[in-house]
């Protein structure tokens, strides 16, 4: 049974969402503060973490940063804030996805299943055949090994960033729209395309010498993104 840690300070929402997740087949554990959530995840890691942004004490942004420093658990923000600044800030802090309240539990459960399904990638492999190395100049993507290398050195990426890079690497030189990437990487039929833009930006900071003039991960205005051969 997949486990979910819910960090939510509103008693009513915390109780109703916990019960709804349990009805969907999840083992749900809920806490009211970010401090409790970080401690709980360190003590007994859940498969996925849901975080509200407006929390007492440590806010949701810092909570995400602390969780992300500890491990690569999928993190979904569940918040009433729907402003672009809030969404971008949460994703840049390290969240993988963003859901705006009021929550449709069936939609949330579908997103959680998609995250978990796509999180099951190999992080180590005893050997990787040369055919599995996708090369873009000084950038290498090794899907089976779960590795990204730049000029021979490993690049630390999150699982979502890795899935995004693999999807682009599987279609070298071809433009993939934001909606295509949202569907293939996050498993959303419909969703906020800003999620894609922020993750592309984070990847560029890790693989580009000049993020203002990227050589590898290129924007095709009005169409989407491509990984340049």
Automatic annotation (TrEMBL):
Pfam families: Response_reg (PF00072), Trans_reg_C (PF00486). Keywords: DNA-binding, Phosphoprotein, Transcription, Transcription regulation, Two-component regulatory system. Residues 131-229 form the OmpR/PhoB-type domain. The keyword Transcription regulation applies. InterPro entries: CheY-like_superfamily, OmpR/PhoB-type_DNA-bd, Sig_transdc_resp-reg_C-effctor, Sig_transdc_resp-reg_receiver, WalR-like, WH-like_DNA-bd_sf. Residues 3-116 form the Response regulatory domain. Residues 131-229 bind DNA. The modification 4-aspartylphosphate is found at residue 52. This is Response regulator transcription factor.
